[in-house]
Amino acid sequence: MNHVLKKGESILFKEISLTTGSLKKVLLIFALPLFLSQLFQTFYNTADTVIVGYCLGDLSLAAIGAVTALFELVVGFCTGFGQGLAVIAAQKFGAKDMDGYRKVVGQSILLSLAAAIILSVLMMIFLKDILIFMKTSEDILDLSYSYISVICMGLWITVSYNLCAGMLRAAGDSTAPLVILLISSILNIFLDLLFIISFHMGVTGTAWATLLAQLISLIICVIWMLVRKKELMPSLSDFKLDLSLDQELTMMGLSMAFMSSIVSAGSLILQIVINVQGTMIVSGHTAARKISSILMLPPASLMMALSSFVAQNIGAKEYERAEKGIAFSNRLAIYYSLAMTAIVYLLSNWIVATISGSSNSEVLDTGSLYLRTNIPFYPFLGVLLNLRMSLQSMSIKAVPIFSSVIELAGKVLFTLFIVPVTGYLGVCFTEPVIWIVMCLFLAFFYLRNPVFKEHGIRCRIFS
């Protein structure tokens, strides 16, 4: 959809039409703010790790690391639910159905808040039992609980911000969320230092700093939409229950939420065997996972851009354009991953030391081993992320969910049979093996997907 600039409106905040123009240029321009947004979000999450490592030591770092998989499971369910809702919104926007878009926004607000509240209550009831089930070490159990309980209480904030930003991206605006995150990232670092150093709140202060930063992001995002994007804001009538639309939204939301949760559940199971390896290994693994999340930002951002791109083009019936965008994204993901492999092999120990703030050789060797065994397989990870998200954006739900089930089953098998024999080395090779299997599985079904097949579009993975 073309957008006419209003008086005083910067071209940076212009909605981008993903259904017209050079697809390569459009995808990259749309993905750049997403990358910077993810970079800043990861930056202030990583700032927690760095500040905790330097100011509170290895024990506190291990306390956060021990619940990282649980954090990803809970938050991933909520954000996955919101991403599913945004897919429907992007399809409406691509079809130039603005009334339908606003109706989707109104219903999505109600559904996402309900999901967040229910999940938050359940987590607070069973949280201590979950941490014990995860075999969280007794010397960090209380610290881990104090951190993750604050995150669980504030799930409605995380969900609301991600929904707001997701709806902006569905309408072709990926820049406003970037600027908002930049502001809140700086605030988060300030709050981390304030709560930990000045108020002596420990790891709990880190959790509160993250939530308050997200709350600021949410408030600014809502104000931005009210002032500059009024055409995207739902009216009171859009909040009236629509059972047919709610069913469609719930199915898509739960599809992506379960996909994300199943993946995170596998990581949670794997975290159990990591937690019994010892505090220093947990610390090294935590630092390495943070580094890995940073290195995956470009392909993850491209995946997010591809989601809106495919959804809008499917809504606009531009099927060939959608297919070409997927192939282009896969090529970029592979090129990037190969470059990162060379860099990590040269600098892994130094990177782990910088992120963790530790000089303990066991911490550094653990983090370096994880990176060197995982990064070479990033080409498979990049392609599988693109294919899985693209299928979701075509409203093909079963295959992406089943691929996540494969990942869960793989992590369970490694946890039960491989890791007890090989130790931490088995942990390091768990995900690469699963990425290869999932990539082949998704490629098989993507090449035969009914959306492109019905319209005579020849599917290609790379070219």
How would you explain this protein's 3D organization?
Keywords: Cell membrane, Membrane, Transmembrane, Transmembrane helix, Transport. The chain crosses the membrane at residues 26-44, 64-88, 109-133, 145-164, 176-201, 207-227, 248-274, 294-311, 332-357, 369-387, 399-418, 424-447. It is a multi-pass membrane protein. It is built from 17 helices and no strands. The protein has one domain (18-454). Mean pLDDT is 87; it is low at 1-13. With 463 residues, it is an all-alpha fold. Helix 1 packs parallel to helix 12 (319-356).
What's the alpha carbon Rg, rounded to whole Å?
21 Å
Briefly note the structural class of the backbone: mainly alpha
Q: What best-fitting shape do the alpha-carbon axes yield?
A: globular
Major β-sheet annotation: none
Please write the string of helix (H) and strand (E) elements: HHHHHHHHHHHHHHHHH
Q: Name the assembly state.
A: single chain
Mean pLDDT: 87
By DSSP (H or I, 4+ residues per run), the number of helices equals: 17
Total strand segments: 0
Helix coverage percent of residues?
over 70%
Organism: Ileibacterium valens
InterPro entries: MATE_fam (IPR002528), MdtK-like (IPR048279), Membrane_Transporter-Flippase (IPR052031)
Main location: membrane
Subcellular location: Cell membrane
